[in-house]
Amino acid sequence: MVWLQLLVNGLVTGSALGVVAISFALIYATTKIFHVAHAGIYTMAGYLAWSLATSGVPDILSLLLAIAACTIAGGLIQYLLYAQLERRRATHLVVLIASLGTLAVIQNILAAVYSPNILQFPVPWGGNVLSLGTVRLTWTQILTVALSVAAYAGTMWFAHRTILGKRIRAVASNPFLAEITRLRPQSVYIYVVAIGSAIVALPGVLVPFDLGLQPYGGVTPLLTATIAMIAGGVGSISGAFVLAVGIAVLQNLSLLVMPGEWSIGVTFFIFVIFMLFRPTGLFAKGR
Fold first, then answer.
1. Which end is more exposed in the chain, N or C (fewer Cβ atoms within 10 Å of the end residue's Cβ)?
2. In angstroms, what CA-CA distances link 63 with 31, 48, 49, 57, 208?
3. Do residues 4 and 11 touch, judged by C-beta distance below 8 A?
4. What is the model's pLDDT at position 53?
């Protein structure tokens, strides 16, 4: 029953990637900025939580404080970098390069402070295994799935049921109309990048609980999240989450027939072919 264990592992990985995807989709759909520095926020969250946990702070409090710090960091990136570039009428390419530069700065600071070696979280309970028939899951993996699904449900509720969520959707749909109706898009952009940073901090902490920390470990999850966002339909929170889970499951099941180093490339090739026939994404109308 190896395939069943691989399937479950794919669902665990996919749920975490789904949270990265919905946070990135929320930012991109609203600001139209390809926020590559999001990978740096993802990585930074894990290191902040690790620092707190190794200092004796309770695990749940470490997670909450890391989320709070990433929320502030995301808002500052929008306010101090992207907003300033927009005022100077910078092109999308300049903004992308600035975001790449921010990512490089975050990664190198983390590598200089913590070293580029893999760090393990001091959470002995996380490695405890629960056996469900032939399937084995650690408590960290179970927690990852539960909190990831909760984060997806919470994001959907926020986007459709709260005043700020509706304001964000209005700005994403028509920034010009939002400006003349005094919805203040610039302040909305700060909110949405801050909120997206808070969301991505969750898998940024939970995944290293299981796999450890590396300064440059956020790029691959962001790449997968980007593919999921595009294939799911830009602007569709559900589409981004579902496609991220689908990619992770496909990658894991492909290990049955090919070496692990080929699985990512083959998976992305399949989704490129998919995009040739459905370029607007699977859930292009959803949000």
1. N
2. 27, 9, 6, 10, 12
3. no
4. 92
Using CA atoms, how far residue 92 sits from 88, 170, 204, in Å, is 12, 22, 27
Instruction: Report how far residue 149's alpha carbon sits from residue 40's, in angstroms, rounded to the nearest whole number.
Output: 23
Strands (E), the chain: 129-132, 135-138
Of 264, 285, 238, the closest CA to residue 13 belongs to: 264
Per-residue buried b or exposed e for 21-47, using 16+ beta carbons within 10 Å of the residue's own CB: bbbbbbbbbbbebbbbbbbbbbbbbbb
Domain assignments of the chain as residue spans, ordered by start: 2-277
Q: Can you give the pLDDT at residue 284?
A: 62
Are 239 and 232 in contact, with CB atoms under 8 Å apart?
yes
Secondary element (H or E) of residue 209: helix 185-211
Query: Is residue 258 classed exposed, middle or buried when 0-12, 13-18 and 19+ CB atoms within 10 A define those classes?
Result: exposed
| Model confidence pLDDT, tens digit, residues 164-204 | 999 999 898 888 787 787 788 899 999 999 999 999 999 99
Global pTM reads: 0.92
Residue 286 pLDDT:
43
pLDDT beneath 70, residues of the chain: 260, 282, 284-287
